[in-house]
Specification:
Elements lengths: L8 E5 L4 H12 L3 E6 L2 H15 L3 E5 L7 H11 L6 E4 L14 H29 L2 E6 L14 H19 L4 E6 L8 H5 L2 H5 L9 H13 L4 E2 L3 H10 L4 H10 L5
Parallel strand pairs: 1-2, 1-4, 2-3, 4-5, 5-6, 6-7
Length: 265
């Protein structure tokens, strides 16, 4: 059976909340089978059941912690056992440390890097050969508006998301001749549990409403971008204007702004 003879399968990491859940719902509505990955099995099972019931698609769950170095290989192996070749990969899982780099235990720093740098890259590396063989694939990597913003003191997040942005563009150049589109999706402030996990909910709630987007809006623009072969997607008018305004900023000024806007002060 070829990809043209079956319903395509999407693997979504961090599928238990926020943008990940919105991606799962969007792709199910477009008649894609799903492999949902996250740490919270109960939420995944509930979402899988809902999407199967509503859309008649196959929805499988894999409970995994992508900060575990063994997780990416295990996930791809399990997908093969399920007989579900991965046609679409959404690298959404992520976090950000709530403390400064020097105050964060190394185990936590290493887990952050494993989750948002190594696991993202390894999952792509493991699924690309089959995509190249069938000459079709879609990969969405969650970057952030932070990737084009001044760096923040003590935070690895901007550096990590800059890596995701640049890596995605490089891979899109390499893989597009094989029918594979890679897009870095760079949302700004999005309503989700992210700020609760970071411990920055109070600060986030003080931001004006026009800065925020709903996860569904981010996903709709992101999926349209990867479908159209656009390597970068900055969703929302406010975010596009912000990104355009930050591009001309010289490095030294960007560094100064990053320190001035330091969330830990």
């Amino acid at each position: 059976m070829t990809a043209n003879d079956r319903r395509r399968t999407a693997l979504v990491t961090g599928a238990s909340a926020g943008i990940g859940t919105a991606f799962a719902r969007h792709l199910a509505a477009e008649d894609h089978d799903l492999i949902l990955v996250a740490r919270r099995a109960d939420r995944l099972a509930e979402l899988a059941s809902e999407l199967h019931r509503q859309h008649g698609i196959r929805a499988e769950i894999i409970t995994a912690d992508l900060s575990d170095p063994a997780a990416p290989a295990a996930i791809v192996h399990r997908a093969a056992e399920l007989g579900m070749p991965i046609d679409i990969l959404v690298n959404n899982a992520g976090l950000s440390a709530g403390t400064k780099f020097s105050d964060t235990p190394w185990d936590s720093v290493a887990a952050e890097l494993q989750l948002m740098v190594t696991a993202v890259t390894e999952l792509i590396h493991r699924v690309v050969p089959a995509m190249k063989a069938q000459r079709w694939g879609r990969i969405v990597n969650l970057s952030s508006l932070a990737a084009v913003s001044p760096p923040g003191e003590g935070l690895l997040y901007t550096g990590i998301k800059s890596y995701v942005l640049n890596m995605s563009q490089s891979l899109d150049m390499e893989l597009k001749p094989f029918g594979i589109h890679v897009t870095a999706l760079c949302p700004g402030f999005t309503h989700s549990e992210f700020h609760d996990v970071m411990g920055t909910r109070d600060a986030a709630d003080r931001l004006p409403g026009f800065l925020w987007q709903q996860p569904e809006d981010v996903v709709r623009e992101g999926w349209a971008a990867v479908s159209a072969g656009k390597p970068v997607c900055i969703p929302g008018v406010v975010n596009k204007v912000s990104a355009a305004a930050m591009r001309p900023i010289p490095g030294r000024i960007g560094y100064f702004l990053g320190r001035t806007l330091n969330p830990f002060k």
